[in-house]
Amino acid sequence: xxxxxxxxxxxxxxxxxxxxxxxxxxxxxxxxxxxxxxxxxxxxxxxxxxxxxxxxxxxxxxxxxxxxxxxxxxxxxxxxxxxxxxxxxxxxxxxxxxxxxxxxxxxxxxxxxxxxxxxxxxxxxxxxxxxxxxxxxxxxxxxxxxxxxxxxxxxxxxxxxxxxxxxxxxxxxxxxxxxxxxxxxxxxxxxxxxxxxxxxxxxxxxxxxxxxxxxxxxxxxxxxxxxxxxxxxxxxxxxxxxxxxxxxxxxxxxxxxxxxxxxxxxxxxxxxxxxxxxxxxxxxxxxxxxxxxxxxxxxxxxxxxxxxxxxxxxxxxxxxxxxxxxxxxxxxxxxxxxxxxxxxxxxxxxxxxxxxxxxxxxxxxxxxxxxxxxxxxxxxxxxxxxxxxxxxxxxxxxxxxxxxxxxxxxxxxxxxxxxxxxxxxxxxxxxx
Length: 432
Known about the structure:
alpha/beta; UDP-N-acetylmuramoyl-L-alanine:D-glutamate ligase; 2 domains
């Protein structure tokens, strides 16, 4: 059997466990740490063999994780990065110094797991997480940036004891699992705050701030609220794309576009302060170097990614109210500079997303190309059309992202903007 066949079989095995939440939704959600602790014990507690930074939140945790990993890499540390979901290749979920896990390591892990005799049923996410931790330990990484999957308190990544915790922000997402109010969601996210471990909070006001402050006080964890003092002296759009940012360390052009990145950058700079306070040596020079090259160092993709310029084509994985709000505001600003251009939006959602509030955020004067990603969890395009009509919007239906995007591109003039989003999986289908 050749290596490719073995790899595909290993992937099929992983996907056939309690399936990926990202693909099928609620049927795959499996909260609690018992299984993670059991398989962690079987593999010899690999997470104890490296130091980690734990990153949670509703929006921005992926971008923030990649920026922190890039800074550590630039400093010369062997750096693991665990994120989810993947866009095109399963192996995007785990990288060391920007390099994805080799196929052989995926095969090796699955073979070892099949032979272990464990009688429970770990989820896809639990096994994938343990694969990452096991690989990071085998490769003797110095630090690993670990992104929370969902929530925090009961997320399987919460078996780690990190050097620093980061919680980017709180927004309504996955309310059927995490709670139907922002304070309830915040309480779940606050579950990664641990005794004596510094915690950095990107955004939090009112009751949400009280939740985090109360939890930090309860476990005697030093807490920093990033909004209290900006680490950014100035930030302006760069002509090259991204942001030109001046901070204590100096001035740098950060190649991550999107208005929301301004808050992520401030959070990351505060997190770097906390990491330095925890004894992690990071020079000013390498902070700037990491931020300047975050995309090439880590392989980050799908965050306000500009695919071409005439017409301007942008893809972004923002998929909840906060993410879509940022995206639509930025599109509105861009359209104001294009007096002869039109906005064309290729969009689709997952079926378990509450999209009524999201649809109210979409501009009425855009042209919509409605579609669905090729995953079981996708909202069928015919149902999306009905929801659009109920919201007073209109759009043409297309059976897949490729067809929808091709139609948008064929109808566009050089001055138009084409935006592709609504779901991580719409962007994944486009990029693949």
